[in-house]
Amino acid sequence: ASGHLDVRVPKAFSNEMERTTKKKPPSTTSIHIMFTGYDEHSYSSDRNEKVSEIFKNLLPYPEQGRIFIGFPTHQTTGCSSHLAARLIPTVERESIDLVDKTLAVYNNEMLCLVGILCRILYEDEMTQISKLYKEIVGSSINSEDEAIKSGREYFERKAAHALKHFTYKPSTPSVAVGRIAESQFYSCSAKPISILSTRGVQPADLVRLPNPEMEAFIKTVPVVPKIIMEQCDVFIKKAKENLKIMKEIKINDVFMELQSRALTIEETVALMKWWISYRTKENPSDNDIHQFLRLTIVKLNDNDIFPLSKARYFLNAS
After folding, report:
1. From which domain of life does this come (predicted)?
2. Confidence of residue 303 (pLDDT cuts 50, 70, 90)
3. Which end of the chain has fewer CB atoms within 10 angstroms, the N or the C?
4. pLDDT confidence of residue 298
5. pLDDT > 80? residue 96
6. Mean pLDDT throughout 122-129?
7. Which of 199, 229, 249 lies at the terminal end of a domain, its last residue?
8. pLDDT over 80 at 317, yes or no
9. What is the pTM of this model?
């Protein structure tokens, strides 16, 4: 992907930059970022033994990409994309100059634009996944159809690849390079980053981190799929602890689930096991208990349902 930029700077800034680099800042410039999607990467990996070292270096994933300024530098990007841009290097021409006052401003602005372009690439990939996910998987929650199950797994792996690709790690030798791009990657849009959930692509703040005790009965609340939890653990930790855009699934999410549908007998058994465990660890309010009883509806068969609030007795299995 490429971004084309108009460069407008004050005359004093232009003069200072010319004094330092012996060149005026360009009137226009461009940045180029390489992103390889899941399908292309899988295909190239399958044929990896037949690909020369020259072309292997074009695909840094899962390692970090490098910055090219007409020639390769030692500076990594922080994510798994190579970057080609007219960034200004240090005197040694091996890393990006973030020390000189004037050059630091110029390079910082360029790196911010890199972060924006990376976000555009990522969100475009999520848009494509969302469209196909709706067509193939749809809104099914308990489908045993092999085509749907296979499609769901494929999209989860595809989404995990994109998310892992753009999850920033400390860049080297300058950590600041990756930090600048990453900051803009997350802050350039008022909308939180998109992520594939068990209910399709959603803004990350609407997706919950899973609780194994709830897995059997939480079907309509968007939850992070197992594949993404396993492959994108660095992002998950960052989203929860640093960005604070993702939360553990809570009792209010359980109420949303119960409000949306009647549960099967098997799901109700799992729900009651969780509820017993929850009450031993937490101290639910009277309102929470009332909500739980009011919202829990058991589907006995195709025609009959039973509200838990009407239960008066239970069978002691012991």
Report:
1. Eukaryota
2. confident
3. C
4. 96
5. yes
6. 98
7. 249
8. no
9. 0.91
Taking the C-alpha atoms of residue 75 and residue 155, their distance in angstroms, rounded to an integer, is: 32
Running DSSP on this structure, what letter comes out for residue 205? G
Positive or negative torsion for Cα 101, 106, 112, 115: negative
Report the distance separating Cα 209 and Cα 197, nearest Å.
Answer: 10
Residues in the chain: 318
Provide the CA 40 distance to its chain's centre, in angstroms: 19
Over the chain, what is the mean pLDDT?
Answer: 92
Question: What are the C-alpha distances in Å from 104 to residues 20, 70, 97, 166, 211?
Answer: 12, 19, 6, 24, 45
Region for 250 from its dihedrals, namely left if φ exceeds 0, alpha if ψ lies in -120 to 50, beta otherwise: beta
Q: Of 228, 249, 270, which one is at a domain's C-terminal end?
A: 249
Domain check: are 267 and 126 in the same one?
Answer: no
Q: Is 31 exposed, middle or buried (0-12, 13-18, 19+ CB in 10 A)?
A: buried
- Alpha carbons within 13 angstroms on the beta-carbon side of residue 217 total 30
Instruction: Provide the CA 300 distance to its chain's centre, in angstroms.
Output: 39
- Return the C-alpha torsion angle 72, 77, 80, 82, nearest 10: -30
| Domain extent at residue 66 | 2-249
Residue 199: predicted pLDDT: 96
Count how many Cα atoms sit within 13 Å of the Cα of residue 166 in the half-sphere of its side chain: 33
